[in-house]
Amino acid sequence: MKSKDKKIKRFLIACLIFIGILLINGVTSLGNSNASYEIKDYNIHVIVKNNGDLHIEEQIEYRFDTEMNGLTREIMTGYTYKDQKDDMMPTSSRYQASGMKNLEIHTSNTGFSDMQVSQKVASAENGDDGVYTQEHSKYAGQEKDLIKVYSPITQDRKFVTYEYDLTNVSVKYNDAGELYYNFIGGDWNCDIEKANITIQFENTVNMEEVKVYPHTYAKEISEITKKEDQILFHVNNLKGGTAVDARIVFPAEALFTVKKEYQEDYRFDELEKIENKMAFQKDLYYISFLLYLILFLILVLVVIFFVRKTKKIVKGRVIDNKNLEYFRDIPKKRTLREYASLSNYTGESYYTIATILELVNKKIIQMEAKKKEKKKLFEQVEYDYYLTISEGIQNQQLNVDEIRILNMLYLGEISDNFDFNKIENKTVELNESLEKFGKDYSKARKFQEIQAKESKEVHNKLYEMLKKKSIIKPYVISILMITVLFFLTVFAISPANLELKMPALMVGIMILVLVGIISILYFYATLTVVREEYKEDAKQILGLKKYLKEYSLIKERYPIEIALWDQYLVFATLFGIAEQVTKEIKEELIKQGYEEDYIYQTYPIVCLTHESVAMNSFVAQQTGDISSGGYSGGGSGGRRRPEAVEEELFNKSSFRNII
Q1: Residue 39 and residue 192 in contact, taking contact as beta carbons nearer than 8 Å
Q2: What residues does 119 pair with on adjacent strands?
Q3: 35 near 54, Cβ under 8 Å?
Q4: Where are the transmembrane segments (predicted)?
């Protein structure tokens, strides 16, 4: 039906928008975690000493959005791994420091001009101030120092300086010196707004002979500036987890006696090859981001293409609810279960209540409503409903669903054959019968499975799927091709390490799975249309549903007799709009001078329908209501034509009062 089709399309569009937001957020914040702080300014001043050590001073301005006990800082001095080589690659063993020494820490709440020294202690507790601890560790090949600065943060800013020496970092060759150092590690889990890096040499060198090769996946990195005895560059908007390192090649006279000394000339040809490869990898990194966006756009276009193709296939076969005419009669050509399926089925529990109301209308059972004297805790149903089966009922008067429900209510059994003679008590209370039946879980579950199976069989009878192979198969192939291209981009094109790949990988998989599942469901739902021989029946039941839903909005409408309302309420319950429709009839009767309790007790079908929302929930709990996959069904007959009841008066109701 078109209304169902529109709901699915709206849901699909909403999901695509949500997925788009996920993609943009995942790509733009790749590697960023939910830190409760950020770094406003990060100034790093490195002095290359003539003995191969580095003297480093870090000035960091933190911005916080919550109170904290202090700060932690990890400084990695080196790492080793199996098959690590002593070569010129960034992961070479020759570029690892031997250790860290001479650590000093200063903190301030106002600025770098007003710093307080922190004292090193063996241990500290939360709430301590002006102290720090240092713990050296070597695990999984990583050698590092964990520094905990105890300085309670009660304002939104904190200024900290870390000053220390890293030993044996620089490498000396016959004709050159070399430094390969990770100035900003990839272990920062917050964003860095601006990082300024300054490098200078303890010994005077000819800056024209110094070559600097910075490496980072950050987008905004400045040109290298050489000024007097300093090298300067800065990086803006550095996302968490993004490292900044650099290789610096300089004259050999900058180093005197160093531990890492190679009696060979520096291999500038190898340097050029490595740096060109790293530059190409950076290009691949950005190309991979572009490919992610292109693949997402292709995915959207593929979905749009197949959605439009699907709409063309079903054009003329879908009922337009918007322009559907009201149907005021009681449809009677099909069974109640068939009408349930044709009206976009609500659920088996609604169908159960609707069938009970139908049995009342057919005078198979008589119903009396009596207000509960004492309700159970949290119980929403306010009335007891006494059902009395009429004398001489035979199986041939009933359909299989009615037989099954009578067996459930009166005998607590599941059977397609109803034996009137087995009934000891011909009057039962509806709530008690349902509760008693529901206590046997296996029986209730079996009952619902039988109902769901019949719903599916009826659905298959009434509906057909149009050209499934021309949509589903090529669409699945398209999604698989996009998936293959996505994995090739992640694992073959992107040069990022696995840790940086994971966010993009997870977001991409989530998008592909969600789009794939939602789209397939949409195609199945849209391509499933009412068979031509049942299309007029579908228009009638949907027209009745529209009429009952919009009854209060109809300007020129005529009062409806209570006997006809009884018929309407069966379908209102089936549609899941009984509460709304009951409100209409109650208001009409109140206008005629009837009191609410009198209405509910005189016309118990109105009362039961009024409580159908609560009753439906109760039935679902007691009978183990399960989804029937959107299938619908019914089995009923004997509904009176509206013209046969128009002359009946309100006081000729077939229900007995309890006063």
Answers
A1: yes
A2: 131
A3: no
A4: 284-307, 475-493, 505-525
Three-state DSSP state, 519: helix
As a whole number of Å, the CA-based R_g of the chain is 39
Range(s) of the domain holding residue 142: 31-266
Tens digits of residue pLDDT in 367-420: 888 887 766 644 566 778 899 998 878 888 899 999 999 999 999 899 988 888
Q: What pLDDT is recorded for position 431? A: 83
Can you give the pLDDT at residue 651?
A: 33
In which residue are the tokens 């579908």 written? Answer: 538
Q: How does DSSP classify residue 40?
A: E
Q: What is the pTM of this model?
A: 0.64
CA-closest candidate to residue 516, choices 5, 4, 19, 6: 19
Q: Quick one: 248 and 340 in the same domain?
A: no
Spatial distance between the Cα atoms of 653 and 329, rounded to a whole number of angstroms: 20
Long-range contacts, stretch 304-312, CB < 8 angstroms, 24+ apart: 306/471, 306/474, 306/475, 306/478, 306/519, 306/523, 307/9, 307/12, 307/519, 307/522, 309/470, 309/471, 310/471, 310/522, 310/523, 310/526, 310/527, 311/526
Beta bridge partners of 177: 172, 250
The pLDDT tens digits of the residues spanning 605-623 come to: 666 665 555 555 556 665 5
The 3-class secondary structure across 582-622, one letter per residue, is HHHHHHHHHHCCCCHHHHHHHCHHHHHHHCHHHHHHHHHHH
The secondary structure of 537-600 as a DSSP string is HHHHHHHHHHHHHTGGG-SS--PPPHHHHHHHHHHHHHHT-HHHHHHHHHHHHHHTT--HHHHH
**Residue that terminates a domain, selected from 266, 283, 317:** 266
| Angle of CA points 439, 445, 446, to nearest 5° | 120
Domain boundary among 246, 266, 286: 266
For 358, residues 6+ apart whose C-beta sits below 8 A from its C-beta are 336, 402, 570, 636, 639
Q: Is residue 484 part of a domain?
A: no
Read off the pLDDT band of 2 (50, 70, 90).
very low
pLDDT of res. 635 = 32
